[in-house]
Amino acid sequence: MTSSEKRKVITPPRVSIPIGPQHPALKEPGMFKLTVEGERIIDAEVNIGYNHRGIEKLAEQKTFTQILYLVERICGICSATHNGNFAQASEFAAEVDIPDRAKFIRTLTWELERIHSHILWLGVAFHEVGFDTAFMYTWRDREVVMDMLEDLSGNRVNYAMNTVGGVRRDVSDDLKQRHLKGLDHLEERMEYYRDTAIYEKTFWDRINGVGMLPTSVAKSTSAVGPTARGSNVPVDVRFNDPTMAYVNLRDSGEFDMILSDRCDIAGRAVVRVLETIQSIQMCRWLLNNLPDGPIRERVRPRIQPNEVLARYEAPRGECIHYLITNGTDKPDRLKIRAPTHANWVSMAHTLRGGYIADAPITLAAIDPCFSCTDRVAIVDSKDESMELVTLDTLRVRANKWYAENPRRVA
Amino acid sequence: MMQINLLTELVFPALWILFFPGIFFITFLALLWEWMDRKVYARLQNRMGPLHTGWRGILQPLADFLKLVGKEDLTPKRADKRSFAAVPVIMLILSILLCMFLPIVDLNPAPGVQGILSFEGDLLIVLFISTLMAILIVLGGYFSSSPYAQTGAARTGMLLISFEIPLIIALITPAILTGSLSISTIMNTMLGTGGGSGLSLAYGWLLIIPFIVYIISLQAELERIPFDVSHAETEIVHGWQVEYSGKKLAMIHMAEDILLVFGAGMATTLFLGGPFLLELIPLPIFQEFGLFMASNWFGALYYTLVFMFKSALVILVLANMRTLFARWRIDQIVRAGWKVMVPIALFNMLLIQIVLNLVFPAIGVV
Amino acid sequence: MPSLGKMERELLKSARSKQATVIYPFTKEGLNVPPDLRGKWVYKNPNNCTGCKICERVCPSDAIEMIECRPEDVQTRTGFRPICHFDRCLLCGQCVESCPRDVLELSDEFEMAYLSRDDMVIY
């Protein structure tokens, strides 16, 4: 009898479930170690670095023109982001002002890219919760904007529209008409998603109230982009610190920053859908108000010593290119901080306390782009020290580790 | 004399069980339904679906099956090997066994079409086996000892306790109406096809709610969207199936397809009037047509086609449901199961008792 | 507001309408390849080449190599002409843009799969 007096609290065993590096929910390698009790996530740990390619180091050995095409390949989705932002950084460093038409065309490419990136995100979000029908529809409609970008730049993914001092391709009247038609179609479709598709109950139940990121936490973890705006934090470089034709867009007074106070994944989804529609309207405005003139300014290949920071609101958030030039045709240092990198911390917060079933959509909700992010030094999670190590040191360490810990045979 | 006995007593039943409407035919139907399911799913998503294998890709499920059979078969080191291998085999056998109870055609349809296996109380056996299938899924997940598979198995368990009960109640309703526990007898009594007059059409109204409950629970039982939590691809890779490969996976897929045949077949049999269509129209010419079919070899063809037609309608509904929804979270499913489906099923049970005992005598329905 | 089965009408509509799938290798209809696609690297005016090596210098991926003119080639002023190791080319089009004599072009050919690297050297 005495033994049965004691109340026994049975907790489900703690299981550690790896999501990644290879996992159907992740399109790119990254690892999230979830400690779960039953279906509840107790702890989440983010391990990245599977996609390190040494692009920043490589950039120091290339000329500015060549780096344009290198940084473009950091990420397929935001190729115009990095390409345009680096061009912008080099122009700031060279202290040249590019023609208005070039500014407009560069912004147009950026906004078209935002449309395609947000529609892609919407499709991925549908797919993560098993709503494959809407996924198929969104990606079908995304083809329209992909075709438009291909029409504009000559390639579906790597647009290579920008060069130091302007843009490389002009917008003809025919192209403008085709684009206006495409934008009409897209707007109609996006309104359908805004009004109907995301309100399908099974989908809405999965994003409503899931992955909460309160405004205070979003601020303290420095979330950027739609993740922050979905938590009612007004950060949008396009409106806070506009460059290029965003100045004209802001001055036109027709566009406002889109915010949501829902703080959950639904908020981020709504922000993205609304932003897509806003982007479509921005594209239309840009096309209709396209100034005449040259599209590029000649910039000397050697850029004077300078230190600049270029900011641009990528589809995923604020993208920063920090550039040090030294008077040669190669940069001294290029540091890129992609938006996803700023969002990891807030994401780990949103994962804790949720269900495993919600982990994929929570991961996807910041629209992670691993290839953007993984250019980072080793961070020791225990004492949070950070160190840069060379490949040789790494190799020596690896050999030592394997000598000490022989590979387990099952 | 011996020869004839051998023919009628051994060869015919053997062919009956092995080919038509037995294992071979059921497998054929399974592949056909999978093709149809995929095709409808694709068309509703504005895609093409299988296209290149056979006429409009009709052989694609077969090609997939054969491909899987030819693939390397791996067993995880930590898995319980014998049980791990046994699960797909038992699943396949049980699913085929389930289909044996479906009344599709009969050698002698005059006293009503019977299944290959048919006896009083087989409805209970069917319910028992369908629960057993679910337990097998749980076991299959646990035997493979992978965290994904175990999570999937746990989710299957949760899914079962919430949707097995509405499913059983929905299937029991026709039995209550006819007072029999044999699937074939229930069908024939309702339709009046095995002699007897059949139930009045008023009883049909009582079957609408159970039918809807059954279709929804069936979707859960078959683990299709919105109830596909147990092998949610983006969450737990492929759930309890994650460690299965090669022949074992082929068997599991085949078993799932056969369960689809069974599920659609049960809906056809108990709610949609089985393999009868034209006989049900109360006109003399159709009655004669029914008698002609019942006494003739053409009947076999006719009954099969009608059965396939009705099952195909059910498959259409199921495929549409699969397209229409996102995947529910497991807690939402359990909530939906216990707060919506079970009360509806129980309430309907009560309603039927009231109608049968009070309303029908009052308005004079026999 | 959220409700079940919101998209049913759209589903039935798309089941009736034409499918979005492009059966690509069998037909190229619906691919919408624009005329000024940045496709395969080709010579536009091989006779104009002076062998100035600008294209080699600007190439971000070292895809262009200057070789000595073979007897069957056009003899350039410096005696060198560019070839493209197409496996390394990233189709940025910088060589086309930088060429002062309009020698090179990215054509609209987009089917660029080969079985070996040797097949991908464009002379």
Structure description:
- The complex is a heterotrimer of chains A (about 400), B (about 375) and C (about 120).
- Chain A is of the alpha+beta class and about 400 residues long.
- Chain A has helices at about 1-5, 55-60, 65-70, 80-95, 100-130, 130-155, 175-195, 200-205, 215-220, 225-230, 235-240, 245-250, 265-290, 340-350, 360-365, 370-375, 390-405, and strands spanning about 15-20, 30-35, 40-45, 160-165, 165, 305-315, 315-325, 330-335, 380, 385.
- Chain A has one domain (about 55-340): Cytochrome-c3 Hydrogenase, chain B (Orthogonal Bundle).
- In chain A, strands 1-2-3 form a 3-stranded antiparallel sheet. In chain A, strands 6-7-8 form a 3-stranded antiparallel sheet.
- In chain A, helix 3 packs antiparallel against helix 4 (about 80-95) and helix 6 (about 130-155) packs antiparallel against helix 7.
- Chain B has one domain (about 75-365).
- The model of chain B has no long low-confidence stretch (mean pLDDT about 85).
- Chains in contact: A-B, A-C, B-C.
Outline:
The complex is a heterotrimer of chains A (410), B (366) and C (123). Chain A contains 17 helices and ten strands. Chain A has helices at 2-5, 55-59, 64-72, 79-94, 100-128, 132-153, 173-195, 201-207, 215-220, 225-229, 237-240, 246-252, 265-288, 339-351, 359-365, 370-373, 391-404; strands at residues 14-19, 31-37, 40-47, 162-163, 166-167, 306-314, 317-325, 331-337, 378-379, 386-387.
Please tally the helical runs of chain B, counting DSSP H or I stretches of 4 or more residues.
14
CATH H level, superfamily name of chain A: Cytochrome-c3 Hydrogenase, chain B
Could you tell me the strand content of chain A as a percent range?
A: 5-15%
Average pLDDT figure of chain B: 83
Intertermini distance of chain B: 48 Å
Oligomer: heterotrimer
Task: Describe the sheet with the most strands of chain B.
Answer: none
- What is Rg of chain A? 23 Å
Name of the CATH first level of chain A: Mainly Alpha
User: How many domains of chain A?
Assistant: 1
Helices and strands of chain B, in order, run as HHHHHHHHHHHHHH
Low-confidence stretches of chain A: 376-381
